[in-house]
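Task: fold both queries, return tokens.
Query 1:
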Amino acid sequence: MRIHYIRIALAGITLFCSLLSPPISQKGQSSKLIMADGNNNETAKANLDWVAQSAGEAKLIIVIARLGLKESKTRVSRRRLETVRMYLENTRAVPRERIITAEGRRVRGFGQAEIYLDGKLFMVFTFARNRNFAPQG
């Protein structure tokens, strides 16, 4: 039980530090960072599957949603976070305790959802203005 509390504390510290850091820039990123289109349903699902597979059975998944320019409603960020959480929980059977979500500072350009695996930036989804992940269809 103590290990569970230690993991929660470490996740909180990691989340706090990532919220303090400046939003990512698309320039100068390492080749391991995956930029994904949140507006395309099929590629978004495939990329979320890749996140779940890369996380394995033990890695913590942190999702930080950031509003883009001209996006003013925080519910857009919350919907993006909830979509990722629900997909990972219901489709990929990732336990709720391993998924941490938060809203970060606004970024220039498109809104985004950053996904961290064990505290390391792994993937960034970008979205058209005020859009969530594409609906099923």
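Query 1 returned. Query 2:
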Amino acid sequence: MIAAASAGLLMYTVANGGLQIFLVHPGGPFFSKKDDGYWGIPKGLHEVNEALLDAAIREFREETGINPSGDFLYLGSVKQKSGKIVHAWAFRVEDNKPVKIQSNTFEIEWPPKSGIKQNFPEVDKGEFFPVDIARTKIVEAQKEFIYELERQV
């Protein structure tokens, strides 16, 4: 069985004397009380015949409402605990101002077995973190993207 491939973007800046990493927190009731180890880069599956970088840009836009631009630096790929392969690119922005997320939504039955369908944002918040804090917030496998970004910048 071939693992599903996702593509995402890691937005960063250099501010307050160091590297600042932008991470997003997954929305929905399953993650509402989860923090460290659950944040990640905006990412998602690529469409058939869609280039991975194009998918990463599209997913970033859908999950944050931000239109990424600039030079995209390939950070490689990692295999997450689920078996999913995630490819990532980084891009730099000039400041680390707070970001208002405008995420797409998904629908699930909630509460479970209630017959009630509800919509939740795919991403409920996003913010910049200094590297040391970002490493505690991010999904374990995605830490490699932070290390690779540090190596390249």
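Both queries returned. Flag for query 2: Strands lie at 5-15, 18-26, 43-45, 73-79, 85-92, 105-109, 117-121, 123-130.
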